[in-house]
Amino acid sequence: MPAQQKKMLFCTAGVLSLACALGTAAAVGSQLWVRGTTLCTTGALLVNASGPELHKFIGHIQYGLFSGQRVRQCGLGGRPLQFSFFPDLLRIIPASIHVSVILFCTVLIVFALVGAGFFMFNAFGSPYETLHGPIGLYLWSFISCSCGCLIMILFSSEVKIHHLSEKIANFKEGTFTFKTHSEQFANSFWTILVCSLVHFLNALLIRFAGFEFPFSKSKDSGTTTGAVDLMY
């Protein structure tokens, strides 16, 4: 492939990596990871609510990695409440999983920035054999994509398996009991998915630029060396 086209591919991959780093940073500080509704079962059972009356007992909840807000509905109008995970909710949430999600988000941002820098260096500089060359570019893209996948897996398990929304809704609720009525992942969660796909796309761009995978190169060189040894 001509050098000019390679520069364009590397510039594109670098810009995409930079955009992923900024998008992930914005997602970490956002409250739009999960949106849902909660049903006040205690209040609904007291008045035997059904049909349209049930809407008076359905509140709203949304949260991110650090904070969120919910509207508490128990038949007498909504009451908005703000909450934060640190330190308020650490006793009721799976703290190890939650901290791991934040840690992998940080790693994703760092390696996305590193990958963007190395892509730009390969576009306008003289690439080295290890960290700046194809091996390094594959490495940064693989680490970033893996971190994005781990973030989605861990956060999904925290929300679905450990019933995070219900634990938040019932925090410091002595009389009323809330259950999750509906729940869906919001924009910030899907931003992580898009970033993971972009890093996978960057690896394809490296291959499209004409760089063989590192193990393919070593295999070919080993075969050639063996043939030469047989000749002599």
Automatic annotation (TrEMBL):
One of its GO terms (cellular component) is membrane. Residues 1-27 form the signal peptide. It is a multi-pass membrane protein. Pfam families: Clarin-2 (PF25807). Its main location: membrane. One of its GO terms (biological process) is sensory perception of sound. It is found in: Membrane. Belongs to the clarin family. PANTHER family: CLARIN, CLARIN-1. This is CLRN1 protein. The gene is Clrn1.
